[in-house]
Design goal:
globular; single chain; 7 helices; alpha/beta; 10-stranded mixed β-sheet
């Protein structure tokens, strides 16, 4: 029988949480930003739910399987990363904090501004996860920009100066009602359109200006109260649940 001590030796040498190898987040480099993000196994793929408000359409169209995500080794790594993090949150949050510190230095060395999207394929409430000193990661790194998409409308009312959230519209009517209310309050709402790769997105949606969310991933630079238009990619291009808005 393996002792617990033996299993925790070199605990953090094997698995880095942060990645920059995501086509979308790399687009920010041209604008002087280096985004570091985390790919957890979305929804309940790891046996633990990291997307409490996900819809069927959202799960079916998830970009978890885009690009390198199609490889079974990548999927296995994401599952074990998710399980490892959620089973030992306190310990792993500290490890992640150290990674963030190193990532900040790495970006600055390259003359880039570091920013972090911790929910690339998840919707965890990072504001509730506390380090031993009582801080969440946003409080621990107050001068660094964090951002995410969320389907949890209550998170859209957070007032954390260095954490920007974009609400993600899906096919269910409850989500759409919340999206309308949030948009009327000047919050940003992401909408996936059936627009093809090279095509122009609609100029407006429900009377609001649409900005191109595919140009880069830097959502915190978007105008307030805008609809963030995203083109349907991968499995989403075959969606007929209503998650993707037909144009």
């Amino acid at each position: 029988m393996i002792s617990v001590a033996a299993t925790t030796t070199n605990h953090h040498h094997f698995m880095a949480y942060l990645t920059i190898s995501n086509t979308k987040i790399q687009k920010g480099i041209e604008q002087g930003y280096l985004t570091f993000g985390i790919h957890f196994a979305p929804a309940r793929l790891s046996g633990l739910d990291v997307c409490s408000h996900s819809s069927q359409g959202c799960r079916d169209a998830c970009l978890n399987f885009a690009g390198r995500g199609q490889q079974s080794t990548v999927q296995k790594a994401r599952v074990s990363k998710t399980q490892k993090f959620l089973v030992n949150i306190k310990e792993e949050l500290q490890a992640l904090s150290l990674e963030i510190k190193k990532a900040i230095k790495k970006a600055i060395k390259q003359n880039l501004i570091p920013c972090f999207r911790l929910n690339l394929t998840s919707d965890l409430p990072w504001e509730k996860l506390k380090l031993p000193n009582g801080n969440n990661l946003f409080e621990e790194y107050p001068t660094v920009q964090f951002y995410d998409y969320t389907k949890n409308a209550s998170r859209m009312h957070l007032t954390i100066p260095n954490y920007h959230l974009t609400f993600s519209r899906s096919e269910d009517s409850c989500n759409q009602a919340k999206a309308s209310v949030l948009a009327s309050l000047g919050k940003n709402v992401a909408v996936v359109f059936s627009t093809k790769k090279k095509e122009a997105l609609p100029e407006t949606f429900q009377g609001l200006q649409v900005v191109d969310g595919d140009k880069d991933d830097l959502r915190f630079l978007d105008a307030k109260g805008a609809i963030v238009g995203l083109r349907a990619k991968g499995k989403a291009s075959k969606d007929n649940s209503g998650f993707v808005v037909q144009v």
